[in-house]
Amino acid sequence: MSDKITVLLTGASGTVGLECLKQLVKIPTLEITVFDKKTKASVKKLSPFREQVELVYGDITNLKQLQKVASNKDVVIHLAAIIPPLADDAPKLAQNVNTEGTRNLVQLLEKQSPQCFFIYSSSISVYGDRLKNPYIKVGDPLTPSPGDEYALTKIASEEILQNSKLDWTIFRLAAIMGGHKMSKLMFHQPLDTSLEIATPSDTARAFVNAIQKQKQLSKRIFNLGGGETCRIPYKDFLIRSFKIYGLGEFTFPDKAFAEKNFHCGYYEDGDDLEEILHFRQDSLDDFFQNEKENFSSFKRLGASLFQKPIKWYLLQQSEPLKALKNDDKKLKEQFFN
C-alpha cells in the first residue's frame, strides 16, 4: 500500500491546469492522476508528463470514462471547463461540461472516494456587473450579467458541490491573465472596469498548497485574486498591453467597448485565502515583464509593421460596435447604458 496522497487533476491542459501539473509533479509525496479531453493540443502539452503521472484521456460528460479515475482519491482539483467566449457561444456545451460534468464527477466520487477533498475552481463572473461597487466579498449576491452562460454554469456547479456528501472548498478566481489571445471578449469589458488579475502560476500555487490545508478550507468559499499589487483600471491594462505587443498607442474608440453587463472588480476579502495558502508571488509588473519576455521581438516587430491592419481586424471583432452599426436594439440594451 502506498502512503502517498492520491490526487486527481482535471483540465490539466488549460492555462491554470498546466501550471498546477508542473507544480504537483515536484512534490514526491503525491500520486497524480490526470483526466483530460484528448485533443492534439492536450496530447502535446501533457505527453511530457506521462512518466510522472497516470494520464487518462476521456470526456467528463461520459460516466464510463470518468469512472476510471474516481476510485481511491484523497484530493480532487477540478479545473476542467468550457470557458468564454466558447461558453457563451455554445451554452448547451458549457452546461454539459461545466455543470453536468461536475455533477458526474461528484456523484462518482461520493461512491468511490467518499473521503476525498474536492477543490473547485469557480469564477468572479458569478458576481456580475460591479462597475458601481467594485469591492467584492464572498457573501455578496450572485447576480451574473445577462448572457453570461459561463457564470450560470459555475453557480450551478457550486450548488452541486455544496449539496454533496463530500468535503469541499471553492475558489472564485479573479481574471487569470497569461496565455490569453485577444478576442471579441475584450470588447465586452467596459474600459472603466476595476481589474484585479492573478497569474496562472500564483493561481496554481493556491490549488496545490490547498492540498495540505483541508482543515482551514473545509466547506468554505474564497475569492482568489492577486491582491493590491495586481489591480489596474481595464483601460490602463490595455494601454500597457498594446505597447508590449508592438501595437503602439491604444486608439480604439470608447464605443467599441461595452458600458455595462460584464464582471470583474477588486477582491476586498482576497487576503483571507492568501493568509492560509501563501500563494502570491507575482505582481502586475511581474505579469507584464513576463509577457514582454515571452512575446518574441520578431512578433513585436511584425505587429508594429502591421499595426493598422491588426488593429482594424481586432476592431471588427467588437460586438458593441456591430450593435450600434446594425442598430440591434437587443444587443444595444445589453452593452450600453
TrEMBL record:
InterPro entries hit by this protein: Epimerase_deHydtase, NAD(P)-bd_dom_sf
Keyword NAD: yes
Domain NAD-dependent epimerase/dehydratase: 7-184
Pfam families per UniProt: Epimerase
Record flagged with keyword Nucleotide-binding: no
Keyword list, A-Z: NAD, Oxidoreductase
Family per similarity comment: Belongs to the NAD(P)-dependent epimerase/dehydratase family.
Gene3D superfamilies reported for this sequence: NAD(P)-binding Rossmann-like Domain
Organism placement in taxonomy: Bacteria, Pseudomonadati, Bacteroidota, Flavobacteriia, Flavobacteriales
Protein known as: NAD(P)-dependent oxidoreductase
